[in-house]
Each structure stands twice: as C-alpha cells, then as structure tokens.
Specification:
The protein is mainly beta. It has 2 domains: 62 residues, Type Iii Antifreeze Protein Isoform Hplc 12 (Alpha-Beta Complex), CATH 3.90.1210.10; 58 residues, SH3 type barrels, CATH 2.30.30.760. The protein is built from 1 helix and 11 strands; from the N terminus they run αβββββββββββ. It has a 5-stranded mixed barrel. It has a two-stranded antiparallel sheet with strand order 1-2. The chain has a two-stranded antiparallel sheet with strand order 3-4. The relative contact order is 0.13.
Length: 158
Amino acid sequence: MIRFAIGMMLWLLAFGLAIPVRAEDAGTIVPVLLRDIATGEVLNADDLTDGAIATALPANTAESADQLVGMAARKPLRAGRPVSLSEVRRPILVNKGSLLTVRVSMPGIELSTTAKAIEQGAMGEVIRVMNLTSNRVVQAVVSGAGEAVVPVAAQPVM
C-alpha cells in the first residue's frame, strides 16, 4: 500500500499534476536605516530600527544593531534598507596627509614626534607615517584621534 502511495505521488509530480504549496515567510528581522547616511557619517542607535525583510539577504548583512552602532559609512547608505557589514567600517581617526603625534615607548624612555600620515586609519589599524625631521617612513598603529604608536620592532619602509 505504501509503495502504491509513493508511486502515485511520484507520478503526479512527474506530470505536473501536483499542486504547489508555498509557505508564507514573515521575513527575517534585521536592522534597517531610518534615514539616509552620508559617507563617513557614524551610525548611532537612533539611525536604526528593526525591519522584516522578505527577500533573501546577503551573507554579510548585519544581524543586530550592535554590529552597526559606532561604525562609519564607507559610501552613502539609503534609508529603509538593511546594511551590509562591508558598507561600514570603524571611524577614521587619522586622515591621509594630516599631521599626527607619533610615540615610541621602551622601558625607561618614551619619545614623541610629529609625523605626516601617508595613509588614513581607524583605531588599531597599521598605517604608514613619515617622520618630518628625518623624512623616514615607518609603520605605526593608530591609537587615537591624531595619534599613533610605533612598535619597538618597527623598521623603516624603504
């Protein structure tokens, strides 16, 4: 009897006589923007709300507002749509071409000087900076707005 039922179902499916049934999907709840966001603007909790999206979402779509709050837009973002994690980044603290304070610390000694940023960078990113006194280029880690730290083992970039 079971063979007959399975055979009948296969026959109905093969000849297109089966009635397709679609389950209603309420959608995925993800954070969406309440307003347009300009390039470089930092997102805060007031810019986001939860929204149900019925279409398929890319794998890198932010799943919670916590992933977006405090991040800066890489490009203009439109209101009413979900945000991809590739569309945001940590805020830029050092701009390319700006002057910044660079510190080198070793046990018993700390040196600081003014340098010019060759690259822009966010907190914790490694950027290249040029010492204005010696014109040597070294790598430094962004440690704050207009500040960077040169690791002791850093070597000049030739």
